Structure formats: C-alpha cells, structure tokens
Amino acid sequence: MARADLRHPANAPGDWFVDTRCIDCGTCRDIAPELFGDAGGYSTVTHQPDAGADLDAWLAAQACPTTSIGTMSRLARPGRLYPREIESGSGVWDLGYCSEDSFGASAWLAVRPAGNVLVDSPRFTEALVAPIASMGGIAHVVLTHRDDVADAARWADRFGARTWIHHDDRSAAPAATDRIEGLGDTVIGPGLVAIPVPGHTKGSVLFLLDERYLFTGDSLAWSHDRQELTAFRGACWHSWSAQTESLARLADSAHRFAWVLPGHGARVVGDPDALHRDLVALVGRMGRR
Question: Per the confidence metrics, is the pTM higher than 0.90?
C-alpha cells in the first residue's frame, strides 16, 4: 500500500500520488505516460486522472514493484486487474505485479493448447497463482535474460514447468531445466521461437510467438517520447556493438512481428512492415553511436 506520509512533493495536486519508496523503474510511465513522469530519480503523478483514465492509474499502481502508487482517499481497487489480455482473443496476458528483484520488469503469459508459457517472472503472489491455474497453469518458463529471473523458480516449482535460459546467462537460473545455445533460433514449442540477441547481457534472448508477439526483455522497446523503437545504451551490461549486431541480424531475418512486449520500456502494436522499417532505422542509429 502506498504511504501518504511519504508522498513525493513533486506529485501534481490531487488524490493520486507516488511515494518516495519509488525505485524509478519507469513501469508506471510506460503503462500510463499521460499520468506519470520522471522527477529525477523518482516517478511522480504529473496529471491527475479523470474518470476516463482511472483504469490506467490502477493498472500502473497494481504493476508497481514497491506498491508506491496510491490515493490519499484510499479508493477501493476496481476488482481484479491482472492478468490482462493485451488484445481480445490473443491468449497473451500482461501479468502486472512486477517484482522489485527484476527492477519492475513486466512479465507475460501466453495461453497455448500445447502448454502455457510464462515469459520472465512477476512477483510470486496468490493473486496471480489462482487465475493462472484456472487458465491451465504453466508448462514452460522462458527467460529473456539474467536480470528478469525474479521468482521464476517458484513459478516453475508451483506448476511443474520446464525453465529455459540461454547458456551464457545460466548462472542466474541454476535450476533451469533447458538451455538455449549459440546464436541460432531454437524452437521451444509450436509457434514459439527463441532468438538469441547477445548485447544487453551475454545471454539475452527474444521470444517470438506466432510471428506476431515479440517478447524482448531489455533488448528492444518502444519510446513514448520519440515514438520509435529504442534500445538502452545506458543499460547495456555486456556489449553495445554485440547488441547492434544482434538487432541487425533480426532485421535481416525473415521474422516479422506486430507487437513488441518488453520487460522494461513501453510496449507497442503496429503494422509489421512499419515496425520492421523502424527496426532497420534503429540499427542504423545504434551503429552511429
């Protein structure tokens, strides 16, 4: 629960606020950029939501890894918010409940006839266990990289799932049952392909589902400010040149996608050809830095 006694002074006047336990993960700014902004080391409410934007504020609050977002009036949460399907009939669900252990990274659930897939890990909470169980549990936990492992082992243990991570990030998930090797694509299951993209970490991986949904970890995201695909030069822990080469290989491949679903950064949906052109342009910018 957000603490009113720690309300950040930079919050816009009104009911909603962010407290000073915020770790500046940016999750709320990615979910509701019209409501939350960067106050230099913290997120704060920049615009109080009107009745039509209340849901976005609640979604950001429920995703916040430090429960730092709330209301002075202690409004009651409007029912269950997560899991939340990203588009009707997709079977892809935003899980919210981000973990402080992964610095607030988003995690996703893909509901599949051959077995459901958890992409990275939210907090392990009974608030998610029950709805995930009702959707068929988890057959595979796939990890995009070492930073966003969080409670993956607990989720895998709870549902008896296999866990996948790239060999080069294996030390972050010692209990993983399966390892992705090298730079080539690896088929995880029907319609699900692992695409290694070393750069952000040595073992970073993208997961492409049905040539539509691209789960990108911290290797690729959307920028609300610039309205274009972006990569994080200031948060590249292994090699910027390797990350540039990795995304260039993706751009040169036959793969296409309509959704970019990152751990950190904003998600986006668009025309696959337009997103491919944007990816090519991003690689060009990365190579000039």
Answer: yes
